[in-house]
Structures are given as structure tokens and as C-alpha cells.
Design goal:
Elements lengths: L3 E2 L12 E7 L7 E2 L3 E8 L2 E5 L2 E5 L4 E4 L5 E4 L13 E8 L6 H4 L5 H9 L4 E3 L1 H14 L4 H17 L3 E3 L10 H17 L6 H7 L4 H12 L3 H19 L4 H7 L5 H12 L3 H20 L6
Parallel strand pairs: 1-3
Antiparallel strand pairs: 2-9, 4-7, 4-9, 5-6, 5-8, 7-10, 10-11
Helix pairs in contact: 2-4, 3-4, 6-7, 8-9
Length: about 300
């Protein structure tokens, strides 16, 4: 699977950008990149994504902005691909190229903070909290808008993103689409890790997968992804563990083992370094947050 340079369509000839909702059995777009900046709202679905040099999971409600030529792919679990599956992958996607607005517009003082967003998006950005809720509402509304009203809504979104601190960067380095041979190798590596992260993974077997010596593989991966393979694998396993801590009630030791950690002390140490909380504190914190969100959703009906 090669990351493709996609030429994205526009849904109307009289509009300068693309906005549409999608409803498919699974996300079928291959690993790809394009000059357009992309907003991705996951309406329904979950799975694994690779954005730049970072592999992580996604779930319903996630909202991201992906910069120009940032390679990415969203993959659903295997059950989505079964012939008798009733699962759906729903999303709202916006693609836009700021260059279509002209150099004069981008040089306006009022557009300065937009340009800063475009630059930050080269790492990929996840939105959180109130900012995510506001942008989600606008994207849903845009499906029924056209013309100037839809363009103003896009500017409203960019204004929210430029003003909020409720965001996190996805990729640790700015990665752009490269030659087909290199990107095909990276794609094979990412697919392998997503499938076998729970098992011990030896450096040699990954090097063999892409037909490189171990030394050449280490040099290749560091050069192309701006991080070592061991660091990449560690962070993906920690991300999977954090997800299970939030969404399951299983023992922490079992979760660590299921995510590829064979030493609990090592897992606890690395987890705390990444998230600044122990696994137990992390689970407790997010349990309280989930309960608070549930209470807020029920609040409008409490007096009825």
C-alpha cells in the first residue's frame, strides 16, 4: 500500500473547498496525502490511524485538522471488512487549500492567526473540550449550507482553532509525502505494528519485512519518521493502554500485558513519564471526567 498523492474533488463548481458527510462500511481511503488541509470529524466508528510519524487510535467524536501533504490513513478493525458486517464508518470531511484565497488575503493582519493554524497543522492537531463541541456543531451545520454562508462557517472554525488552547499535536515531527518506495516501506511497518503490537516484536523481523539489514532499517526509520522505531512502538503501546484504562475495568497488569509490556514496573514508569500520571491515577481521572460529561448531558432533562 503506497501513500498516494490524491487529487480531491469539489462537490460544487462554484465553491472553493470541499465539505461532505460520508457513510460507508469502513474507511477505505489508502495511506495518502494531498496539498489541501483536511478537517476530519469521526461521527461513528473507531480504529487505528497513522498521521505523520505517530500511530494512535481514533473513536467516535474525534476531531482533527491535518496539514498540507501530511500523510495519513484511518483503518477500522477487521470486523468492519466482513461481508455480513452491519458496522458503519461515518465522518464529515472538509478539504480546503488556503492558496485559493490568494496571497493578498493571507497577508492581511486579520488572517495572520489563520496562517499560524495552517503551519501548526503540519503536525496534525486534535481538538478537545468546548472547542471540539463548537467545531463539531458548525461542521454538522455546514452540510446544509452553500456559498458564502458555508465559507463563513469555515472561517468560524478556523477562528475557534486559532483561539483555543484545547488542542494537542498528533505527530512529533512534520512529515510530508515522499517517494513511493520509502512510503510503501513505512506503510508495511505501520500495518505490521497495528496487527502485532501486543506480541514481542524483534527489530530484525521488522527489518526483514521491508528487506533491509537491521542497521539500514534503523537509519531509514529514523530518517523518514524523525523518531526511532523503539520509541514509535513504545508510544503506540502506551496509547493503546491508555485507551483500555479509560474504556475497560480490567486489571492494570493485564492491560499492560495485552498492550505488549512484559514488565509492569517498566510500563508504570514509561506511562507516568508520557502522561504525568500513574495508570491508576489516569483511570481515576478519566472516570470522573466521563461521569461529569454524562451529568452535563442529562442536566437539561433533570427538571422535567
Amino acid at each position: 500500500m503506497k501513500p498516494l498523492l490524491e487529487h480531491l474533488p469539489f462537490n460544487r463548481q462554484d465553491e472553493s473547498f470541499f465539505c461532505a458527510g460520508f457513510d460507508f462500511p469502513y474507511f477505505g481511503t489508502p495511506w495518502h496525502y494531498h496539498p489541501e488541509i483536511e478537517l476530519v470529524l469521526i461521527v461513528k466508528s473507531s480504529g487505528t490511524r497513522v498521521i505523520g510519524n505517530t500511530m494512535s487510535t481514533f473513536q467516535e467524536g474525534d476531531l482533527s485538522i491535518l496539514g498540507s501533504n501530511l500523510p495519513h490513513i484511518y483503518k477500522n478493525p477487521q470486523e468492519h471488512y466482513q461481508a455480513d458486517s452491519t458496522l458503519r464508518a461515518q465522518s464529515i470531511i472538509i478539504h480546503f487549500n488556503p492558496n485559493k484565497w490568494g496571497a493578498v488575503f493571507l497577508q492581511l493582519p486579520e488572517a495572520k492567526k489563520f496562517v499560524q493554524v495552517f503551519e501548526s497543522a503540519k503536525l496534525g492537531i486534535d481538538l478537545h473540550g468546548r472547542a471540539r463541541k463548537e467545531v463539531t456543531r458548525i461542521m454538522q451545520r455546514m452540510l446544509g449550507e452553500t456559498g458564502t454562508r458555508r465559507l463563513i462557517s469555515l472561517f468560524d472554525i478556523l477562528n475557534i482553532i486559532s483561539d483555543t488552547e484545547e488542542l494537542s499535536f498528533i505527530s512529533e515531527s512534520a512529515i510530508q509525502g515522499s517517494n513511493p518506495v520509502d512510503t510503501e516501506r513505512l506503510s508495511a511497518i505501520y500495518t505490521f505494528v497495528a496487527q502485532y503490537y501486543a506480541s514481542p516484536i524483534k527489530l530484525q523481523e521488522v527489518a526483514d519485512l521491508v528487506h533491509l539489514t537491521k542497521t539500514s532499517f534503523c537509519r531509514f526509520f529514523l530518517d523518514r519518521s524523525k523518531r526511532t522505531f523503539s520509541d514509535f512502538l513504545l508510544h503506540f503501546r502506551l496509547q493503546k493502554a491508555s485507551e483500555q484504562l479509560i474504556n475497560t475495568t480490567g486489571p492494570i497488569a493485564s492491560i499492560a500485558y495485552e498492550c505488549g509490556f512484559r514488565n509492569l514496573a517498566f510500563f508504570n514508569r514509561k506511562f507516568k513519564k508520557k502522561y504525568e500520571l500513574t495508570p491508576k491515577q489516569y483511570r481515576r481521572t478519566f472516570t470522573r471526567l466521563k461521569q461529569t460529561e454524562k451529568d452535563e448531558r442529562l442536566a437539561p432533562f433533570s427538571d422535567q
